[in-house]
Write a structure and sequence with these properties.
280 residues, alpha/beta, 7 strands, globular
Length: 280
């Protein structure tokens, strides 16, 4: 079964959401000419707020494409949401289940059918205290190298003022944001699309961990540089690695990466002795 959607459902969402977004938000849009008008394409964007999917969808639609997101499968458990998502062709992602491979196949099929797929390579809203992008997961690179689809880097800024992401440490810029939904005064959604990321040097290579990591880093660097342009600031040379930070905190708290308590004192000495064959 190929990727399916209802033209009627897509038209309905446009009729409802387009005027609503025009009225709710101001816009500073750049680089729409970099979004291909046809053919399968991947839009890879940074993620600063739970509200930026709508802002990005608006930008992409006004650039001539209908956006297709990979959404958490749990959202499809809500009857009304499931009807809308299925009708408009959104793709469920089954995390931590064998069905995850099926979601990737669905995404590949959608690309081959000429759809415009929206990806957040970070996997979640950024935890960086200054809201710069985090290191990316390798799914976007794998999809691009496997299908040959272009990856258009997109940066957005402003959605965090409308609806700050509630998780993360209350430090830096994140700590200065007011919690909750703030529609007034109208917020400006700044979005910029850059030229497709040049991944030609990875073509024909085995999709190894090293290749996917390098391609992902190239994608995230272009997104980060675009965000620096939007913010008028110098982006960080090294991106925030959320998994690395969590691991360092676990170790500092005396825990192993799997969450178990690290042995200390006499217990640790006893384990070391046993490993050396002592005490027998």
């Amino acid at each position: 079964m190929g990727h399916r959607y209802s033209p009627g459902w897509r038209k309905l969402t446009i009729v409802i959401l387009r005027p609503l977004l025009f009225g709710l938000l101001k816009r500073d849009w750049r680089g729409r000419e970099n979004v291909p008008g046809e053919g399968g394409v991947i839009i890879a964007a940074n993620h600063v707020s739970e509200s930026d999917p709508l802002a990005l969808a608006h930008f992409v639609y006004e650039s001539g494409r209908y956006p297709v997101y990979l959404a958490k499968s749990t959202l499809f458990d809500v009857p009304i949401v499931r009807t809308v998502f299925r009708g408009t062709g959104q793709i469920p992602v089954y995390r931590d289940r064998a069905d995850a491979a099926l979601a990737l196949r669905d995404a590949e099929e959608a690309l081959r059918n000429g759809q415009c797929l929206m990806f957040y390579p970070e996997g979640s809203c950024t935890r960086d205290p200054e809201l710069w992008p985090m290191t990316g997961q390798t799914g976007v690179a794998r999809m691009a190298l496997k299908t040959g689809a272009k990856v258009v880097p997109v940066a957005n800024w402003g959605a965090h003022e409308l609806l700050p992401y509630k998780k993360g440490e209350p430090t830096g810029l994140r700590g200065r944001l007011k919690k909750g939904f703030h529609p007034f005064p109208r917020k400006t959604m700044r979005v910029i699309a850059g030229p497709p990321v040049d991944l030609s040097k990875y073509e024909g290579e085995e999709l190894s961990k090293e290749t996917l990591r390098a391609a992902t880093d190239d994608i995230m660097r272009q997104i980060t540089d675009l965000l620096g342009e939007l913010r008028g600031e110098e982006p960080p040379a090294e991106l925030y690695d959320h998994h690395k930070v969590l691991e360092e905190r676990r170790r500092a708290a005396g825990r192993e990466p799997d969450g178990t308590t690290k042995p200390t004192g006499a217990a640790e000495t006893g384990i070391a002795s046993a490993e050396r064959g002592e005490g027998k």
